[in-house]
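Complex record, two chains
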Amino acid sequence: VHTLVTILVMAGMTAVGHVLLMAARLRLDLSWAGNLVVAFLVGSGVTTLLAFWVSLLTPSLGLKVSLAALAASLVVVAGMLARWLASLLAWRPRISVSAVVVTPLMLFTLLDLGLLLAVVFRGDPGWDGLFIWGIKARYFAAIGGVPDSFFTDLSRQWSHLDYPLLFPLMEAIVYSALGVPNEHANMVIIVVFVVGMVVLFHELVREAVGPVLAVVFALVLVTVPAFWTNAVRAYADLPLALFLLGGGGLVCRWLIQRRSADVVVGGVLLAFGVWVKRDGLMVWAAAAAAVLAWTVALAIKNRQVTCRPLVGYLAPAVAVVPWWATVAQYHLVDRNYAPVSVPWLVHHVDRVPTLLHALAGQLLLVSSWGLVWVLVASAVVLRPPIRSAARAFLLWAIAVHLLSLTMIYTFSTWDPYMDHVNSSIDRLVFQILPLALLFLATAIRFDPAAAFGPNDFPALRRSAGPRPRGAGGPDEGFAVEAVLQAATDSVKSG
Amino acid sequence: VTLRSTLTTLILFHPNLRFLTLIASLLLVLGVVAQVGLAQVDYLQTRLPVAAASLQLTPVSTPGIEFVKKHVPPGEPILYVTGNHDVLELFSYYQMSYALAPRNAVWWAVAARTTKMVDWWQDASGGAQGIRRLAAADHSRYAVFAGTDVTTDLHPVAVWTMQTRFTVVEL
């Protein structure tokens, strides 16, 4: 019963996201599964923010209002689902012989994923899962929302009162639906995030490099040892990795296709990433810089200034401001880090080489990452993202995330500070892993599916959505140069 | 510089050298296949049995926690006193605070000086006087002595003992 209720609440969050995206006319043209994951991410962010906003007015009503929104959206979506199922009955799939190549790989991936989910489903939330995130969920579920007393209860300062609340509020909404705190429900939520991660990752790679490599890379993702480590505990790092993948992936799509829905929803997901964990701020800022640079470049090229993409990207971040203001109001500080100041930085600058060495050591740790980071580094050398803005953006976001978060340890108050580094650097690296694998996938300009001819995967290609404007075929990857050329041509032609 | 940039342009972008792109892609594909192969061996032979063997939910309620709930009313801050401040004591304190959230605030007290920003206990040195000083500061009428004896000369109002080394006292 607990599992079913938890899954129902997750479905409700997805329904909220779907209804909102429909109402805002933000259609992404992903496959139905990809749209479902994006709707889940948007819905989880919106419902938890709603719970927090209502809590600012009436703490005991926050979770109830969220649950009411979930229920209402479920009713709306159930009607839409019934229509969709009716239309599905009329659909006659046509699978060609060459689909035989994809099917075994897909089954293999599903087998690995199934094994992983079986472990996650019966797993343990872990130390941080209980004492950083779960304790907040218990607190909110008992009160019915986020009370002022939560921010002033310094007896629990060690549980990081200043941390963002998306994940614990999700858990609290589930507890509220169940009527009792239940740690097993936390693992069910993680299962939903794991499935969402694999589905959305497959979707983005398939769009970029074709169906066969998409399945291969999904297999790579689920077999990275660190993916296991992070999937079998109820920490916020895996949810954050999914938000970064969704947001970063959609900003990539925008760089290629320049559809405003992509940059807006990408902005929403990356802003919600900050609402999951503050570590998400780096990729949000990196993407903001990329959107700004691209907007300026296009303005110069087209001799016409338009701020709409930038505003569309930045506006969703306003949703997180009330939480940030609340934390500032209570003067909550993270005792793990010293306040950012130049004198501290100057005094501890000698840590930088050690930190870079620690980062390199972590990336080369085969027991955690296999060959993934070696392959990513090889991809940078063998296929540098010189003529692809989308691939350059991915590399930029990965580098900003890895380097800036590693450098933050310069301000660590731990003594010795390497204990702090060793206890958390693997999670920081994991947060960006899916985007790094997406970058690696786009470096391979060789799609085995192309060998079977363009009509060999009708069932798989059916949901692939429109190809990027100017992109030649499935082996083009993020062929932004073609888009640039088309844009230049259109300017030249007046 | 000109020579280098010309060579770079030739190797990376010249239409007749596109095969280099193919070779680079094939090298990466080989790497990916190696990654998947290695991971499969690791996945099926090592990680799955280990993960399956360690499947048990961390106990979020223990007899000790239930004992405290029985004797300390809701809303009363608790001073949680341990003899040491190692990981074992830290875990037991977190566990107590987790199980009693938001029912009771739980403060950790150890007779030891704090030296780091992330030492989460309060220094209860000074015997009974130290305990009473902290209890007054935290507005605690109750103290829980876990894994350590009740401080001598504390003269509590009431004492409840579970087994030998877990005691709730009303100050």
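Note: Confidence is low (pLDDT under 50) at residues 450-494 of chain A.
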